[in-house]
Write a structure and sequence with these properties.
CATH topology: L-fuculose-1-phosphate Aldolase
Largest sheet: 8 strands, mixed
Structural class: alpha+beta
Oligomer: single chain
Shape: globular
Helix content: 40-55%
Number of strands: 8
CATH superfamily: Class II aldolase/adducin N-terminal domain
Radius of gyration: 18 Å
Number of helices: 8
Strand content: 15-25%
Bound molecules: zinc ion
Strand order of the largest sheet: 4-3-2-1-5-8-7-6
Length: about 240
């Protein structure tokens, strides 16, 4: 018979897999799939040297408990029936560098990629952009797929202690202390980039509010409870067949 502790871990692994499936459904509905090339992962509960990740060749909306890939922090597949993404090193190297991070998303969202091509700084001109008021750095080493631990480590270095990094002409890597946080932040980042592109195209950007006001709003909209509320709402919309963006 399983011990209570083993049973607890088994339950929480199943819950983590279910949450990964739900995050995939939300991200797909938000348009972050890019022909199966977007991916999402979460650390294994109680076993932070490993993480669960969406499988290669499947859409974000096609994750199942069986095809989820289990990887170690070297980026090696150690379980699951699915294929491992070659860009697994974005995830493994960020987990190695950031013990506070429990979920990583890499995607190629249209507006974020367009914004990354401008080379501009994201300005606090909208609520979603204020979520990134603590910094949105660029990764500019290459446009290639991140297929080596060295390149993954370089992405992690560019990310630093921030919530996301723009990978110039390629995509984004977004992190969170939870799957709820990374998922909601990935959608907010795409919205923030879209709004700034619209403002720039619509005649340019005017005055911004003072730093103290920006920091106040940043504190309000980045509370963990907010991410859970937003995630659960988006999941209800997905289950009702309604658009999430
Ligand atoms: Zn990519």
């Amino acid at each position: 018979m399983e011990s209570a502790e083993q049973n607890r871990l088994l339950i929480s692994e199943a819950e983590a897999k279910q949450r990964l499936i739900e995050a995939g459904l939300i991200l797909d509905a938000a348009g972050l799939g890019d022909l199966t090339r977007g991916h999402v992962s979460v650390r294994v509960p109680g076993d932070p040297e490993f993480f669960f990740m969406k499988p290669h060749s499947q859409g974000l909306d096609e994750i199942t408990p069986e095809n989820i890939v289990r990887c170690n922090l070297a980026g090696e597949k150690v379980g699951g029936s699915g294929r491992r993404h070659s860009e697994v090193f974005i995830h493994s190297e960020i987990y190695r560098a950031r013990p506070d991070v429990h979920s990583v998303i890499h995607a190629h969202p249209t507006h974020a990629v367009a914004f990354s091509a401008t080379g501009r700084k994201l300005l606090p001109i909208s609520q979603p952009s204020v979520a990134f008021a603590d910094g949105l750095p660029y990764f500019t080493d290459c446009i290639d797929l991140i297929r080596t631990p060295e390149l993954g480590a370089s992405v992690a270095r560019a990310l630093g202690g921030c919530k996301a990094v723009l990978m110039r002409n390629h995509g984004v890597a977004v992190v969170g202390a939870s799957l709820e946080e990374s998922t909601v932040l990935a959608i907010m980042l795409e919205n923030a980039c879209r709004i700034q592109l619209l403002a720039q195209a619509g005649g340019g950007i005017g005055a911004v509010f003072p730093e103290a006001a920006v920091q106040r709003l940043h504190h309000d909209i980045t509370r963990p409870e907010q991410y859970r509320i937003n995630f659960d709402y988006l999941l209800r919309r997905v289950h009702r067949g309604e658009p999430v963006v």
